[in-house]
């Protein structure tokens, strides 16, 4: 690994690294934390995307928003006008509006002050940070799914497209929050932020830089290196076996989709250049497993555990599953699969 890259990686926070891996792998990410820290996580991610990576960022609270409000809130001015609206779009206070006003309405109010434009040339932000999307109604989640799949949305004023490296980030309302099935499957990674890891951007403990720590060209170069990272036949078989063992685990009811396997391969390859490697060793596959599957895995219950079909005692099964967590299931599967030498 280049010394310069290594030094810069050491300076990143945990949330910075999560965003970097998402950008390199091209996978969207869900962030979890305890409920009282979700606002801090949102603000830290917003500052990380804008300061560390120099990306246009839109923040929207989805808990009480409509489809139209959601669509408006994720739009930013075209590059020519970016400097005038680079402020935090999720804050009504920054626009001199009442604190209780939803961010989407605040954005709309700020635009209409300048009059109505006949040509709406706004673009979707490079990064959309959607907080409490799990609390949004089915129509808003369906709009988010359509945005991720097609990389465009339609509003009352026209069609708006995303950039090539578009990233959709969700800050969940609580650790066990879940999105709708198909939307959840579109997210390649998840990450749980612990309070002790802190919020260096929000707290001001992170060194300020005049330019982004990672430019678009550098991220593009890391993405190319990830694409070229080699998986040997043995490691590819190991990756496949992990997915198979996950599906067959007695502790798993569902959630292990074919899309998840593709995401696992993409994240494992994205980790290679960050470790100075041009190949993917088994250790990076296991690291990727811990990031790709936690938000997907649906644990078995006392009513769905498979050994009940062959006469297991329901009371014993219920007692066994009482203390089993998603992390326990992942470690059990990883330990069950033979690692290639």
UniProtKB/TrEMBL annotation:
InterPro entries membership: ChlI/MoxR_AAA_lid, Nucleic_acid_metab_PIN/TRAM
What's the EC number here? 6.6.1.1
Question: Please, which domain of life does this record's source organism belong to?
Answer: Eukaryota
What GO MF annotations does this protein's record show?
Answer: magnesium chelatase activity
Protein name as it appears in the record: magnesium chelatase
One of its Pfam families is AAA_lid_2
Functional pathway: Porphyrin-containing compound metabolism
Please report the stretch or stretches of sequence annotated as the ChlI/MoxR AAA lid domain: 246-304
């Amino acid at each position: 690994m280049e010394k310069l890259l290594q030094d810069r990686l050491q300076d990143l926070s945990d949330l910075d690294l999560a965003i970097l891996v998402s950008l390199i792998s091209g996978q969207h990410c869900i962030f979890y934390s305890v409920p009282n820290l979700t606002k801090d996580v949102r603000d830290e991610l917003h500052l990380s995307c804008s300061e560390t990576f120099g990306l246009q960022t839109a923040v929207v609270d989805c808990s009480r928003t409509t489809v139209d409000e959601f669509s408006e809130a994720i739009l930013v001015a075209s590059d020519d006008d970016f400097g005038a609206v680079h402020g935090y779009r999720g804050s009504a206070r920054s626009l001199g509006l009442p604190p209780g006003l939803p961010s989407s309405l605040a954005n709309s109010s700020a635009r209409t002050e300048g009059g109505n434009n006949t040509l709406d040339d706004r673009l979707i932000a490079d990064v959309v940070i959607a907080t409490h999307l799990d609390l949004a109604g089915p129509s808003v989640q369906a709009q988010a799914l359509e945005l991720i799949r097609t990389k465009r949305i339609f509003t009352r004023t026209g069609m708006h497209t995303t950039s090539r490296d578009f990233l959709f980030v969700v800050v969940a309302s609580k650790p066990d929050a879940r999105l709708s099935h198909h939307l959840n499957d579109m997210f390649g990674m998840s990450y749980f932020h612990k309070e002790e890891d802190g919020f260096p951007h929000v707290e001001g403990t992170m060194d300020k830089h005049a330019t982004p720590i990672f430019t678009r060209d550098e991220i593009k170069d890391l993405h190319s290196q990830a694409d070229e990272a080699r998986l040997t036949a043995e490691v590819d078989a190991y990756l496949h076996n992990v997915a198979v063992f996950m599906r067959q685990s007695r502790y798993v009811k569902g959630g292990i989709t074919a899309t998840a396997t593709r995401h696992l391969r993409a994240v494992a390859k994205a980790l290679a250049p960050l470790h100075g490697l041009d190949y993917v060793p088994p250790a990076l596959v296991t690291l990727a497993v811990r990031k790709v599957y936690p938000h997907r895995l649906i644990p078995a219950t006392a009513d769905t555990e498979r050994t009940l079909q062959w006469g297991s005692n329901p009371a014993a099964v219920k007692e066994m599953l009482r203390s089993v967590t998603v992390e326990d299931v992942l470690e059990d599967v990883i330990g069950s699969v033979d690692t290639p030498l």
